[in-house]
Write a structure and sequence with these properties.
Blueprint (H helix, E strand, L loop, with lengths): L11 E9 L4 H13 L3 E6 L3 E3 L10 E10 L3 H14 L14 E7 L4 E3 L4 E3 L8 H10 L12 H6 L3 H5 L2 E2 L1
Antiparallel strand pairs: 1-4, 1-5, 2-4, 3-4, 3-8, 6-7
Amino acid sequence: MKKQDTLENQVKQSYLAIGSNLGNKITNTHKAIAELEENKIRITKVSSHYLSKSWPNPLMPSFINIVIKIETTLAPLELLKICNFIELKLGRVRSKKNDPRTCDIDIIDYDKKILNISSNKLITPHPMMTKRNFVLLPLFEIDRGWKHPESKISIVNLINSLPIKDLRSIKKI
């Protein structure tokens, strides 16, 4: 007898952006990946680390950023809850918006779905991703064929639409 998959336990491919600008930034990204793996999340690709200025205030400590491709059976809000829990576990303190942090995990794309769950502050694709060099360049590295789920614009065209100064201000390390 064949067991039917329900929508809930089907594997979804998604992309997460992980950043850190406090403490040992590279170690923080590695710890975040290890924590995700312990929570029903399979990591299938990991970008290189990218060094970028803090946004929107470049006077804050610089960030190390990566983008990862994952597979999960978790629903979007379950994934968000785990990401927030990992941020806290790794020492993130939420005070003012865009303050320095040990760990920041954003859901960039959840299974190519367009979601807006305002009560839980979950919007996918991430509303600011198209303006962020530290998301687009690592995403391009791991999936050159990625297209924005809503606008259908290719990753190459999104990168080409960034200001030159943004492209010059990020460094792959």
